[in-house]
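anyone else get weird line breaks when pasting these?? whatever heres mine. first is seq + tokens for prot A
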Amino acid sequence: MNSLSNDDVTGLTVAVVGLGYVGLPTALALADAGATVIGVDSDRDRLRAIARGAVDLLPLHHAQLACASAGDGLRLTPDATAVGTADAVIICVPTPVDARREPDLTALSAACASVVEHAVPGQLIVLTSTSYVGTTRDLLVEPLRARGLTADEDVYVAFAPERIDPGNERHTPERTPRLVGGAGPRSTRAAAALLAPTASLVRTVADPETAEMAKLWENTYRAVNIALANELADACDALGLAPVPVIEAAATKPYGFQPFYPGPGVGGHCIPCDPHYLLWQLGKVRQQAPVVATALAANTGRPARVTDRALDLLARSAVPARGARVLLVGVAYKEGVADVRESPALEILDRLTAAGADVAYCDPLVPSVRVAAGTLHHLPDPRTRTWDLVVLHTVHPVHDLTWLRAPGAPPVLDPRQRGASAAAVTGVTTEAEVTA
């Protein structure tokens, strides 16, 4: 086994378990820094897509993928036993919630169990998947001990939460600080050295639990502030004000304020899921978190509120809901990505369909989506049809909304409170208000 020194990963073999939105950029950053990377994923279709370059990545990471694929810096395999040949293992598997909003640890438990099974002395194991406080000890440190491998002595174990903002070129992993909390000082140093080439800086903390809680709190903070922004939008509506100018005016204060914007709800891999891990664990120790719980409930209810606004606008236009032609602009959970996980658009489509509306969507990044009524497909040119209502859910940079400003254009429901203007193209996806 090689060892880490001076934050240099050249010559190291690193296994990355899970090649999704976190694992693949992590693998590419390490390969770009000189490591030999073994990409492990049980999904053979995903491996084939990566090999073809048919994956949703920023241009920088597509360039890294092309470079790694042309050489020998990245080897793809579905074989979990390959982790036994690596100097370091990074676990990057999803941690969703189930239908009851409770943690679904199926993938994480299986991945950690497999890594523990094939762990070898001297190896560094880094968990990046967001989970409850204590996960690293429960799923790695203690099972390794049961195998006779003591963390920070025989093997090195750390938690280093992912901080990836998909589709955002300003916040690539390489430009973002990274947290590392090891099972002991040697584990912390080894993990910090491994991850240093992949981040703008590495901040070490006392233990895995501190890093785990910090990650949960980052996204809980965002969830609460999004709920607050949505509440502001409702308050402004009641008072005859536009919320975005209010937010932008408040944001001129140089301290004590960070702007969040209203929208149709929350989506993606983090904000709709991670705070529920915290509430779930606090519930087990009978600790209440009423502000967090209320915010999450408010965010969950946002798609229904957007649907109600859409139906109200149709009624005000004397258009019956049954048979009304409604277009959603964008179904991805945020601008610039092809990801529909937990996207509010899916619930909005289902609710509008249940009300009898004839729904369609336009999102060039998402060829098709599965909804309750079946599969819907991207409508390339919505101008070829007549609409009773257009809902601006997610406005990608490639969307041309000028047709919505033309005479005779349909009414628009703007969940981001920004209107069908050029400014909407660069806006932040969030809540809802009617513009006609």
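and prot B, same format (seq, then tokens)
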Amino acid sequence: MKILLIGSTGVIGSRIAAEARNRGHEVTGATRSGTDGVVLDAADEAAVAEAAKGQDAVVVAVTPPRDGTPPAPHILAVGRALLGGVRAAGSGRLVIVGGAGSLEVAPGLRLVDAPDFPEIYYAEATAHADLLDLIRADADGVDWTYISPAAEIAPGERTGHYRRGGDELIVDADGNSRISAEDFALALVDELETGQAHRGRITFAY
């Protein structure tokens, strides 16, 4: 499979790249700096369309700028450019690594709206939730999948185990929602290979 991986040098993106390459997939990394392959501004629709030509899948694992600017404008600009670019290129699939904040912890209650949600993550979480809303509303003609990680994701062990869900936050027996970046990458590449989820959101956790 030919995969364009936008954000291939980040914590999650680098592990997706390693997992996919280890399975024999052809991964073209794309970042703002070009460190892992090609230079790409993910908010530039024409550039996304050009980079996505001939790819079987476009996987996106980008984070907002860390310079203190509001994350929503950047994330939504990237979302619009991705939808337009992938649609124009005719690529097979668009898979976006989103956030956990839009997952439900109770019927009609998102994690980001829970009283104890950390304020430091609120702006980014709501921006990713807005991105999901944008994709659901404007993704005509695009075979998309939005994948939310567990509430806690960090570098760790590749165990080969995970659970899969839909719009609800997955928690373990102790009420914790977590997954290693390595197992999240494994689960994402499994989804690329099996193609179980189309035009919807899924989540992975332990």
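btw re prot B: The helical segments are 11-22, 45-52, 71-89, 122-138, 181-194. Residues 156 and 180 are 5 Å apart (CA to CA).
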